[in-house]
Amino acid sequence: MTITFRPHHFLCTLCFRGKGHSPDFIRNYKKIHKNLFATGGDIIPIEVVAHTDAICEPCPNKQNLLCKVQEKINVLDKGHAEVLQLIPGEQLTWGEAKQRIKDHMTLPAFHRICESCSWKQYGACEKVLTEFLS
Ligand code: SF4
Ligand code: SF4
Q1: Given CA atoms 37, 41, 43, 46 in this order, what sign does their dihedral have?
Q2: pLDDT tens column, 119-134
Q3: Which atom of ligand 1 is nearest to the CA of 76?
Q4: Is 5 in contact with 46 (CB distance < 8 Å)?
Q5: Using 50, 70 and 90 to split pLDDT, how confident is the model at 103?
Q6: What is the per-residue pLDDT across 33-89, written as a single tens digit (0 to 9) for each?
Q7: Which residues line ligand 1 (CB under 6 A)?
Q8: CA within 13 Å, CB half, 131
Q9: Residue 103 belongs to domain spanning
Q10: Ligand 2 pocket: which residues have CB below 6 Å?
């Protein structure tokens, strides 16, 4: 099973704590999250894509390969792809993805590249990332 992630969803998934755009969105995300964080989840392959992905699938904002707020999402994807050195078409395991976050993500980078995200203000992502990087 290979799942698809757009660049900014690697960090979102690390930081996911059960909140999201709709009940269906949350249900799907919880399933993905549970598989990745279960024993053996580190070997699950993930393909980097430059469009909607496995997490976007039931999102009310999804419009085929695009998102209703595409311009905002482009900014997030670009920033995350640059910091984590992710290239569309690349495949990496979840374990490798977490290592990539450990090696390249910093709190200042997080504050910069997640600035436009409406979830950032709640502090959950910052808290998880701070613990993850310590
Ligand atoms: S602040 Fe937003 S974009 Fe950044 S990791 Fe959290 S949910 Fe994802
Ligand atoms: S808001 Fe857009 S990028 Fe985010 S999960 Fe929904 S469809 Fe995907």
Answers
A1: negative
A2: 999 999 999 999 999 9
A3: 3
A4: yes
A5: very high
A6: 999 999 999 999 999 999 999 999 999 999 999 999 999 999 999 999 999 999 999
A7: 8, 11-12, 15, 76, 114, 117, 119-120, 125
A8: 7
A9: 3-133
A10: 21, 52, 55-56, 59, 61-62, 67, 69, 73
**Which residues partner with 66 through β-bridges?**
63
Give the torsion sign (CA, 85, 86, 92, 94): positive
Give distance in angstroms: CA of 62 to centre of ligand 2: 6
Query: What are the pLDDT digits (tens) for 22-32?
Result: 999 999 999 99
Beta-carbon count within 10 A of 23 CB: 9
The residue whose CA has the least distance to atom 5 of ligand 2 is: 56
Q: Check pLDDT > 90 for residue 2.
A: no
3-state secondary structure 8-36: HHHHHHHHCCCCCCCHHHHHHHHHHHHHH
How many domains does the structure of the chain reveal?
1
* pLDDT score recorded for residue 26: 98
Closest approach atom of ligand 2 to CA 73: 3
Locate the ligand 2 atom nearest the alpha carbon of residue 76 and give its number: 3
